[in-house]
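Structure in, sequence out. Go:
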């Protein structure tokens, strides 16, 4: 997915409170009236919470939330500190104890994926625009 313009980014500590801060950041960047705001808030919450719980981010690290323009759509990335070479994978079992965060993202985002960023991991999600103006 080609990014044409980074709109805003925020680096947060790898703590549970960061999911709440990431939702507030999404509201600040998109504005209360943005049609994708509820979906973005939910998916950002899940991606940040997963990063804090399952990666080095939650052990004294950090997590970054970034909003970009991708054509007429909005691209959101949550980058964590990685988990010793493993990457998040979608668990298709609806009764599984773990893996519901990616199931939620899969159901809501137009498109999503995972990419390596060095030792870090980025979960990217695409949502309908309009992309906000740079902050």
């Amino acid at each position: 997915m080609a990014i044409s313009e980074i709109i805003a980014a925020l680096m947060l500590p790898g703590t549970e409170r960061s999911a709440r801060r990431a939702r507030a950041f999404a509201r600040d960047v998109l504005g209360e009236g943005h049609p994708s705001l509820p979906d973005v808030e939910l998916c950002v919450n899940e991606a940040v919470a997963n990063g804090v719980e399952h990666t080095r981010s939650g052990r004294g690290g950090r997590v970054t939330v970034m909003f970009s323009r991708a054509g007429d759509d909005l691209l959101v990335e949550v980058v964590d500190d990685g988990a010793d070479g493993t990457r998040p994978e979608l668990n298709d079992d609806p009764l599984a104890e773990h893996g519901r965060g990616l199931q939620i993202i899969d159901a809501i985002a137009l498109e999503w994926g995972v990419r390596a960023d060095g030792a870090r991991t980025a979960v990217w999600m695409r949502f309908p625009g309009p992309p906000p103006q740079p902050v």
